[in-house]
Amino acid sequence: MARRGQAAGLGLLHWLALALVLVLADQFTKILVLGSFQLGEGKMVSSFFNLVRVHNAGAAFSFLAGASGWQRWFFTGLGVAAAVLIVWMLKNHAGQRLFGFALACILGGAIGNVIDRVLYGYVVDFLDFHWAGIHFPAFNLADSAISIGAACLILDELLRVRRGR
Fold first, then answer.
1. What's residue 2's pLDDT?
2. HEC string of the chain?
3. Rounded CA separation 1/102 (Å)
4. Which listed residue (26, 116, 125, 156) is catalytic?
5. What are φ and ψ of residue 54, in 5° steps?
6. Res 28: pLDDT
7. What is the pTM of this model?
8. Annotated catalytic residue: which of 26, 116, 128, 143?
9. Rounded to whole angstroms, how far apart are CA atoms 120 and 38?
10. Is 125 tagged catalytic?
């Protein structure tokens, strides 16, 4: 029994380390953007990609961005609650590789965006993909980690159901 706990503990540390690397990468890129661009300023990188500086006071796709300010603390609290739940889930399922990877990505992304909300009152977005004049809403590395984590959660569940047949 002690071996299983030790293995789970090492797995938990592994996933927390991955989440920390994602938080550090996210915050580093945001600091670069904040130091290099003024709000609304951008630079064309390719025919379909720009670097821009955008502030998002809301959630995904600027949901509730126009609210009176309460959303900052609501989304901060939601992010903290999600982080606590994810750490608990990682502790209990650290040996499940795809599931652990997915949760670590979501954890790193959630913490990266919570840091922005606490420090600035908004999330710094800077990746702007576009095609034929249509721009996808700008996003950041934390958002990317959350999306990758969500896709991996779906894949993990599909694989689990398939194994159950």
1. 44
2. CHHHHHHHHHHHHHHHHHHHHHHHHHHHHHHHHHHHCCCCCEEEEECCEEEEEEEECCCHHHCCCCCCCHHHHHHHHHHHHHHHHHHHHHHHHCCCHHHHHHHHHHHHHHHHHHHHHHHHCCEEEEEEEEECCEECCCECHHHHHHHHHHHHHHHHHHHHHHHHC
3. 26
4. 125
5. -130, 140
6. 98
7. 0.87
8. 143
9. 15
10. yes
The Cα diameter of the chain in Å comes to 59
Are the C-beta atoms of residues 123 and 113 closer than 8 Å to each other? yes
26 catalytic residue (yes or no): no
Residue recorded with tokens 């821009």: 52
Retrieve residue 12's tokens: 């938990």
Residue 3 pLDDT > 60: no
Angle at Cα 50 formed by Cα 44 and Cα 53, nearest 5°? 110
Residue 26's alpha-carbon distances to 20, 95, 123, in angstroms, are 10, 26, 11
pLDDT of 62 over the 80 cut = no
